Amino acid sequence: MEVLEDERDGAQPCNGREEMKNGSEEEEELNINAVLRDDDLQAVLTKLKLSGDRDACALVCKRWKAIQDSGRKSMRLRAGRVMLERVAARFSCLTDLDMSENIGRSFYPGWQDDDLGFVSRSFSRLERLNLNNCKGITDKGLAEVGLKLSKLQWLDLTDCKQITDAGVEKVASGCPGLRTLYLSRCKLITDKSLAALSQCRYLETLVFQGCTKIGDDGLLKLSEGCSSLQVLDLTKCGKVGDVGLKSIINACSTSLHTLVLEDCPQVGDDSVIAAGECCQSLQILLLGGCRLLSDHAVDAYFRRHTNLRTLRVEYCLKLTDNGIKSIFANCPSLEVLDVRCCSLLTDRSFETLRLGSNCLKELKISGCNGITSAGILKVAASCPHLYLVEAKYCDHISTSSIIGTALPDGCKVILDSETLVF
């Protein structure tokens, strides 16, 4: 007890202010902002996968917000020059910018060439740029893209109605690393655009839906430089025929996995046979509306090629049971088959299905009056993964005839008046 009193007598008086000062110094030393450099903090923030988590970190302090802003890579913008300038001041490192405009809900007058020029000067690191439905953009704006955005790899110009060959040529010459380009319904472009794009040797995806002025000459030029295409969509390109298609198919034989030729009236057997001979990577082939297509091409294709996953041949009016039988006999891995309005088909189309071993998941036979409920029964017995059958306007398929069919659990059958789920 005496020792305790002696210790108390010898104790120094406590200085509260000094303790607070020491505590604040220790707290400052332990403050994360004093420990982490900007690069370190940026590296930590980049590990956050959820945008909500990144936004929460931006609320910690001004420094964290500035670093988070500087490291942001993607953004979606709507029309407005004031907002565009504010974004450019805060997010200088963007690599992905979405400026697409909603159909019917766009801000008037929408993005203009001056806006696109400002973007090209402010975001030199852009790799992806979405201008879908930006009807105010012309070749003048695209010239700025080609001049300033040399790192661009992905560009969507769908429904940019004023774009011509001159704009595409500027992009092709200024963006040599371009890999994906959407030009759907840019109806002013011609074969000159395809010739210009031949210098973009890394192109992997080209979509030209509704570009009615491109044809075989353009595809011949394109094939001279592009040999890495994986996706080619020429839907409703009425001037495209077998000559041009064969050239691009041969040039991209090792890479092409998706070929879309729907509503191309000049495409016939030669293109499909060529694809079967050399495109072993092809998994999706869409030929709906190619009315010159016959059983000969289908048979020749599937005798060589057995890896296809999706085939659409709706409105191919020359196809008969023999062509469809060849498909099932040689390609059990097929998952989606669309033969709507192929009026010559009957239940015999399904004779070569292998009981319980086919991978078919989706079958569309609307308008095929020769197919009956017996054909559906054959498909159900052979395809355990089947989940959709569309059978509208089939006179010999009714609700009463389908109800007793042993379809897989969860399979949906769409008829004229109702949808059945098993």
UniProtKB/TrEMBL annotation:
Signal sequence, renumbered to the chain: none
Pfam families noted in UniProt: DUF7885, LRR_6
GO biological process terms on file: SCF-dependent proteasomal ubiquitin-dependent protein catabolic process
Example of a GO cellular component annotation carried by this entry: SCF ubiquitin ligase complex
Annotated region described as Disordered, given as residue ranges: 1-27
Highest taxon, organism lineage: Eukaryota
Residues in F-box/LRR-repeat protein 15-like leucin rich repeat domain copies: 124-197, 225-353
Database matches in Gene3D superfamilies: 1.20.1280.50, Ribonuclease Inhibitor
Official protein name in the record: F-box/LRR-repeat protein 15-like leucin rich repeat domain-containing protein
UniProt source species: Ceratodon purpureus (Fire moss)
Native organism taxonomy: Eukaryota, Viridiplantae, Streptophyta, Embryophyta, Bryophyta
